Amino acid sequence: MKKAIISYFAEGNSLAPASHNIRRKYLKCFFSWVVKEGILPANPLIDIPLRREEPRVREIDESKLHSIFDVCDLTIYSGLRDYVLLCLTIDTGVRPKEALSLLPDDFNLRSMEVRVPAIIAKTRVSRTLPLSPLTVDGVRKLTSIRPDSWGKVPFFVSAERNTMDTHAWSQRLNRYGNKLGFKITAYDLRHAFALMFLRNGGHALALQRTLGHVDLTMTKRYVALTQEDLRKQHRMASPLNVIVPKKERLRKLKY
Question: Which of 34, 40, 176, 232 has its CA 20 to 30 A from that of 153?
């Protein structure tokens, strides 16, 4: 059985990582049942690894982001927390898991910075990110209504002091999205930050350091999308379109 499994996956080497991983997922589930029933002594999928999938960059329309800010109820704790978390992510591009692991002491409102400690950073390398006045103001307001008894719990928690994870945050965003008629996830906010940062004149190397990428490999995906923006703008706005009208342009040469 083990040889058959290895042969099966070897034949699918040309498959996209997502297709490979889906096959592995369902087969592993099936063979887990087989082992549970005593038919086989061990799951033959154990040593078949997942393939690394290249992360996809998803664009979110700016008007949709604006509308989510508008529906946050700032008169209640959860609404203010969500608003500040939105501000922080759109302002810094911090990863959802990193943002939800931040402690109150990680914010330095006087210097308008937030430090992502190495222990919570995905790459295990700390970084300090600048904050805009709007984010600082939101953090200050949320701090003012946090009970002192909460102590050292993460800064973004539920009203019952329970910690939040990326899934819980995405569910909150989905609720807002359902009200507004679109879908959005926690990671979509990070992607939105990266694309808008570049479109507003930010440098790719600065974006790499801000996002906490080890190298420019992932950052280049955002650059590629903004380059497409440039091509579209060039097709529309090239001065040559005005100087040389279409009827006067050279036709394709025929040989």
Answer: 176
Domain finish residue from 187, 214, 232: 187
The answer to whether the CB of 122 falls within 8 A of the CB of 95 is: yes
Record the pTM.
0.72
Is the same domain home to 71 and 136?
A: yes
Distance from CA of residue 154 to its chain's centroid? 20
Residue 100 and residue 24 share a domain: no
* Per-position pLDDT tens, the chain of length 255: 888 888 888 876 777 777 888 888 899 999 999 999 999 999 988 888 887 765 566 677 888 888 999 999 999 999 999 999 999 999 999 999 999 999 999 999 999 999 999 999 999 999 999 999 999 999 999 999 999 889 889 999 999 999 999 999 999 999 999 999 998 989 899 988 988 898 888 888 899 999 998 887 778 878 776 777 767 766 776 776 767 666 555 554 454
User: Under DSSP, is residue 131 helix (H, G, I), strand (E, B) or coil?
Assistant: coil
